[in-house]
Amino acid sequence: MNVFANEGQPDIYRGFERILVIQRRTESALEVAEQGRAKAVEHLLASRLGPEGKCHGSVEPPSLYKIKQIAKAQNSTLVYYSLIYDYQQFYEMSRLQIGLNTLYAYATELFIWVISPAGKVSFRQVDLQSLWSEDNTSLAGLVRSVRELINVGYSDRERLLCRQQLQFLYQILLEPIADLLPQDPQKRVTIIPQDFLFLVPFAALIDSNGQYPIEKHTLLTAPSIQALEVTHRQRKPIVERELALQTVGGNSSLDCSPPLESPQECLVVGNPTMPSICLEFGEPPVQLLQIPGTQLEAEAIAQVLQTQAITGDRATKSAILEKMRSADIIHLATHAFLDDIEGLQSAIALAPSPNNHGLLNINDILHLNLQAELVVLSGCDTGRGRIWGDGVVELSQAFITAGVPSLLMSLWLPPSSSNLDFMKEFYHQFRQTCDKAQSLRTAMLTTMEQYPNPREWAAFTLIGEA
Question: Which residue ranges does the record assign to the CHAT domain (predicted)?
Fold first, then answer.
C-alpha cells in the first residue's frame, strides 16, 4: 500500500528503508517500514472519514522494542515483506509509452524481516531484477498468472503450469526464510505482505519437496505489525466478556471460552437479493448474479451457530447494519468486491431497498462500533481491477478499525461444493478449539484430502488474531 494516493509517486519511506538496508541498519529499516504503513493507513482513514479519520482508532507506529513485544504477545513468528521499486525506469518506460503501465511491474528488491516470539529479528533480501532478465516476467506478473491459473486451471496443462508457478513463488517468498520458521506445525506464522503480495495464496505455495506451507505451519495474515497491536487490544475485552459469561454459567474453569457454545449473538447472511453495480468504471450499473451455493451455505452455518439465516429481500443494508452492531460472530455469504479500479470502492453486496442501493462500503464499516470477535466474508472477489492489493488492505483495516480482531476472507470465489464443506469444518473446529488459526489450518487440510486442487481449499486467509 503506497503512502501516496497515486501509484507512480515515490514512497519516501521505502526510499529511506533502502538507504538503511544499504547501511546494514536493517532493524532501523523495519521501524521505518512500519512508519510508512501507519502513514498509509492514516491516509486511507482520512480519505474515507475526513479529518477525524486521522485519529479514529489509531495508535503510534511501534518501535523495534514494541515490535518484539507484539511478536511475543501474538506468540507468532512475524514475516514482514517490503517491496522496493525502480521509479526511474517506470517513469522512463511510461514516457516512451513502452513496457507495462503499472509500477508493480518494476519491483527490483524484496526485503523480508522475520521476528520470532523470543524477539530475534532476522533480515533477508531477494533480488527481483533477475525475473526481468532471465524469466522475462516480474513478481507482480507471476502473482497475476498464478491467480488466473488457479481460477481457470481445469486442464492438466493448466494445473501443471500453476503448480510450477506456485513453486516459483515459494522460491522467492518463503525459501529464503525457511530456516527461520518454526518446525512445529502448530506454531503460528503471521505473514505481513505488501501491495500485490496480499493476493498471494501463501498456504498453497509449493516447496522443493512438494509440500504446501499450510502442511508445515499455522498461517495468519496482517496488514501491518501496528494492526496486530490493535487487534490484540480488541481481543482482550472479548475474552473477558466471554469468561464472565462462563462464570455466570458456572463454567469458569475452562482455559478458553468455546465461542460457539457461549450465549452469543450470531449474524448469518446469505444469498441476498442482489443490488446493481458498475462492474467497469463509466459503464451503466447491472444487477449482480447470485453466487451459487450461498443460500445452502448460510442455512448450514446458521444451524451450526444456532440462529436463523437472513436471506433474499430481508438482507437489506439497513437491517444488516443494525444487527452487525450487536453480533459476536458475523458470517456474510455474498459478493464482497475488493476492487482497485479508480473511482470504485470495495463493497459488500446486500439487498437493495427504496432507501439505499444495498452496497455496504468501506465508509459504512468505518463508522461502525462492532463487538464481533470474528467476521467471515466467504464471497470476496479480488479478481477484478489491477493487481494492487489495496482492496484487501482497505476491507481488513476497515473492520479492524471498527473493532473486529479477526477477519476470515476469501481471495477468490471457491466452488460452492468444496466451500460448504470447508466452512462446516472450520466452524466445527472453532467450536472445539477456540483457535481460529488452527481451525483454518485443519479445515484446509481436511478439504484438501477430498479436493486436492488449491482452488478448492486455499482461497481463505485469516487476518488479525488467532
Answer: 165-465
